[in-house]
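Need residues for this backbone.
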């Protein structure tokens, strides 16, 4: 089962996603790079499919022939965001600093 990249509304479809499909909850385009299996913020051209054409608007409608709807597992209300390596490092430092402060708080 897929879900809208913007609001998380589940999208039930066994067939291919039509190019002009929109989310029933937030009206965002479903056939967009942000909903694609190949979309990767950190890849070259933001797409892991090397043959895919460059798309300027990643949240807008596109007609990419390599589009595959991203299947997301059912999760809690809080979606997991992919973080940059720098953000992950800062989070680890913050957790370590908090643990150290808790240790010496007594």
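Answer:
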């Amino acid at each position: 089962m897929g879900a809208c990249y913007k609001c998380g509304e589940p999208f039930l479809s066994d067939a291919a996603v039509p190019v002009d499909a929109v989310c029933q909850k937030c009206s965002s385009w479903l056939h967009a790079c942000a909903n694609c299996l190949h979309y990767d913020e950190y890849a070259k051209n933001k797409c892991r499919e090397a043959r895919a054409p460059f798309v300027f608007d990643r949240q807008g409608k596109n007609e990419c022939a390599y589009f595959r709807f991203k299947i997301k597992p059912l999760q809690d209300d809080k979606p997991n965001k992919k973080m940059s390596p720098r953000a992950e490092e800062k989070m680890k430092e913050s957790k370590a600093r908090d643990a150290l402060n808790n240790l010496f708080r007594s």
